[in-house]
Amino acid sequence: MKKQFAVIGLGRFGGSICKSLSEQGMEVLAIDTNEDKVNEYATIATHAVIADTTDENTLKSLGIRNFDHVIVAIGDNIQSSILTTLMLVELGVNHITVKAQNDYHEKVLNKIGAHKVVHPERDMGVRIAHNIISKNVLDYLELSDEYSIVELIAGKTVHGQSLIDLDIRAKYGCNVMAIKRGEEINVSPAATEYLMNGDIIIVIGADKDINRMEHDLFDDED
Ligand code: ATP
Q: RCK N-terminal domain spans which residues (predicted)?
C-alpha cells in the first residue's frame, strides 16, 4: 500500500515537499488556510484542502491520525506551528516532521514531542558554506558537532591509486562509504578499489580528519 503523507503549510518549503512526494508516487494530502495555495496544489497532491490545523476538530475530521507521516511546514506563524504539532502528538500521529524557524522554535518542538525537526535555511547555509570554501566538497551532511558525511571530487592527486594505496582509514580515520563513477555507484568499496579523476567519493569521519584528508589528497591545483 502506498504511504500516506499530509503536508501542512504550502509555502516554498511545504510546497516543494508536496511536489516531490507526489512526483515519487506517494499519496499526499496538502493542507493550507490559504485558498490560493490550496488551488495551486489541487492538481499536484492527491487531495488538497483549505483548513486551519490549529483546530483539533479539523485535524480529527481530516483523519490525520491515520497518515503515516505528517509534515508541518508552517513558517512565520510559530504559534500555529507549535499548536498544530502539539495536537498531532496528542492525536498519536506516527511520524511528525516540523520545520523550525529559529533555535527557540526548534527547542520547543523537540520538547513537545516532534519526531524530527528540520531547519532548512540554517542547514542549507552550512552545506553551501562548505561548498564555497572548498571546490572539492560537493555536499556535506553534519551528523553531529564533530562528525560528518561529505562528497568529495577526486582529482589528479588520487587518480589511479587504490584506497589501500591512499591508506585513508589508517592515516585519516575516515571511511569511504561509496564511489560514484558516472551513473555507477560502488557501495562499500573494497580496499583494492582505485580512484579516477572525476570520481565522487562519499566519506564519513570526524570533521578535523576529513579536512586533513581533503587538504592532502583532494585539494588539487587546476
Ligand atoms: P517558506 O519559506 O517555505 O515559503 P514561510 O516560512 O514563508 O515558508 P509561511 O508562508 O509563513 O512560511 O507559511 C507557510 C504556509 O503555511 C502558508 O501558505 C500559510 O498559509 C500556511 N499556514 C499558516 N498557518 C496555518 C494553519 N494554522 N493551518 C494551515 N496552514 C497554515
A: 2-118
Distance from residue 73's CA to the centre of ligand 1 (Å):
6
SS3 8: strand
Q: Give pLDDT tens digits for 21-59.
A: 999 999 999 999 999 999 999 999 999 999 999 999 999
- Atom of ligand 1 at shortest range from CA of 11: 4
SS3 content of the chain, % helix, strand, coil (to 5): 40, 25, 35
Phi/psi zone of residue 161: left (φ > 0), alpha (ψ -120 to 50 degrees), beta? beta
CA of 18 to the centre of ligand 1 (A): 13
Q: How far is the CA of 66 from the centre of ligand 1 (A)?
A: 23
In this prediction the pTM is 0.76
Residue nearest to ligand 1 atom 2, measured at CA: 12
Sign of CA dihedral 131, 137, 139, 141: negative
Q: How far apart are CA 41 and CA 54, in angstroms?
A: 21
Over the stretch 80-118, which tens digit does the pLDDT of each residue have? 999 999 999 999 999 999 999 999 999 999 999 999 999
User: What is residue 135's predicted lDDT score, i.e. its pLDDT?
Assistant: 74
What's domain 123-218's architecture?
2-Layer Sandwich (3.30)
Pocket of ligand 1 (CB under 6 A): 8-14, 31-34, 37, 52-54, 73-77, 80
Enumerate the domain spans of the chain: 4-118, 123-218
